[in-house]
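Reading a protein record of the kind used here takes only a little practice. The integers have meaning only within a learned vocabulary of local backbone shapes. With that in mind, consider the following protein and its fold in token form:
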Amino acid sequence: MNKVKKKTIEVAREFIILNIGIVLLGLFLVIFPTLSGKIICYILGGILGVWGLFKIIEYFRVRNEFFGSFSLVQGCALLCFGIYILIVPEFLSTFIAIVLTMILFIGAVLKLQYALEFARLKSKGWTVQAIGAIIVIAASIIAFLNPFGAANFLMIFIGISLIFDGIWDLITMIYVSKFFKKIENAVTRADKHNDDYVDAEYSDDEDK
């Protein structure tokens, strides 16, 4: 039980960090809508380049593998792709908005799934979760259609949507934690009641 609780705390911590990152990304898009696409491309290109270098170094460091390792091929491919993105960030910047919109949409569908699961558990707050999911789905559809024209307005809209999405997830996590805490307390009380009942029966049998 302690292992499960510890794992749950670790997952919750990772979830909090992830959503704080999403909120910060949204703020970044809102503050720097014009440069955000290129900056993200530079960061991604740098990460891929460093990853590729590590793969190449790994290939030459590990000398006991023959024909089974593809580290050199992977490293060269990642390094070349990273360098290309750094040189020509416009190549990928046009897809950044699409990728961010897909992240929004997938997260919203996941929220809707959680809402339906809460509805099955007859939790009172499932409608609030569903409303949040519908809002984010609507925002992602608007971002896909892009009625704004200018790219910077689209980035601002996606940024605001990401901020809303991240904050909503954090609020949802607090609600979910309280919900499962109530279930845990109910199970604990039920187990204690059963133990007391068994002890009482055992005492009656001894008196007889």
Notes: The two ends are 37 Å apart (CA to CA). Residues 95-189 form one domain. The chain has six helices and no strands.
